[in-house]
Amino acid sequence: MPDTAPLAFFLILSGAAIGSFLAAWADRLPHGESIVDAPSRCRDCGMQIAWRDLVPVVSWLARSGRCRGCGAAIPRRLFYAEIIGMGLAILAVWIAATPTDMVLGALWLWCLFGLVLCDLSDFRLPDALTGLLVLTGGAMAWADPARGLDDALIGAGIGAGAFLAIRLAYQLVRRREGLGLGDVKLMAGIGAGLGWAALPMVALIAALGAMAMAGLRALRGNRAEGSTEIPFGAYLAGAAALVWLWL
């Protein structure tokens, strides 16, 4: 096996930048802003953020988490996302058996993390991220001698098909949408990456997590009156990451 230290170092450093990018994407979703075309600006004063203030982790620490122009606090979640992005890369490097596994594992975890952030921010799972998750899952299966691309296609089909059936059945019975199409696409990516046999465990962990959080919110009295919407995609993505680590 070749020396993987340079690749590992690159992935870990890239993790901070990718975490920052994903956090910015999630932050812009509720405002309908493009993550590609629109430059980064302070939400308080509107000043465009200079490149020197966009260096992951370093810039936030150097500015004590405040805007250079108006001194307003920069949300800590952006800084935490950069740290988590690095942490996910470290996990991928630690678990991987080959350089290919390193890259695909890091990309897989980053996609899941981005989907968690976007769902928590605006109850949306962008097609770009779910599509990349499907492709990464297929590549993971192709690179695994015990699986192969056929297994990824079967997993994607079962994952998407099962959740599409749940979505349609809920609409038929309750006359309203209970599961978004984004969750269906997300399950296609999870099925491709983990295989069909892992899907029940992912769904179980996600359901238990969502139920536990809903119960905690009820005990604290934080449940908004009349609001029952749950970012279930975030729980599915988190559960998929846990199952991937376990497998």
From TrEMBL:
Key word Methyltransferase present: yes
The terms under GO molecular function for this entry are: aspartic-type endopeptidase activity; methyltransferase activity
Its cellular-component GO annotations read: plasma membrane
Domain named Prepilin peptidase A24 N-terminal: residues: 14-94
Q: Which InterPro entries match?
A: Peptidase_A24A_bac, Prepilin_IV_endopep_pep, Prepilin_pept_A24_N, Prepilin_peptidase/N-MTase
Q: Where in the cell is it found?
A: Cell inner membrane; Cell membrane
Q: Which key words tag this protein in UniProt?
A: Cell inner membrane, Cell membrane, Hydrolase, Membrane, Methyltransferase, Multifunctional enzyme, Protease, Transferase, Transmembrane, Transmembrane helix
EC number(s) reported in the record: 2.1.1.-, 3.4.23.43
Pfam families per UniProt: A24_N_bact, Peptidase_A24
Enumerate the catalysed reactions. Typically cleaves a -Gly-|-Phe- bond to release an N-terminal, basic peptide of 5-8 residues from type IV prepilin, and then N-methylates the new N-terminal amino group, the methyl donor being S-adenosyl-L-methionine
What's its membrane topology? Multi-pass membrane protein
Domain Prepilin type IV endopeptidase peptidase, first and last residues per copy:
108-213
Q: Which residue spans traverse the membrane?
A: 6-26, 78-97, 103-121, 128-146, 152-173, 194-218, 230-246
GO annotation terms (biological process): methylation; signal peptide processing
Q: Which Gene3D superfamilies match?
A: 1.20.120.1220
Q: Which family does it belong to?
A: Belongs to the peptidase A24 family.
Function summary: Plays an essential role in type IV pili and type II pseudopili formation by proteolytically removing the leader sequence from substrate proteins and subsequently monomethylating the alpha-amino group of the newly exposed N-terminal phenylalanine.
The name on file for this protein is: Prepilin leader peptidase/N-methyltransferase
Source organism per UniProt: Roseovarius tolerans
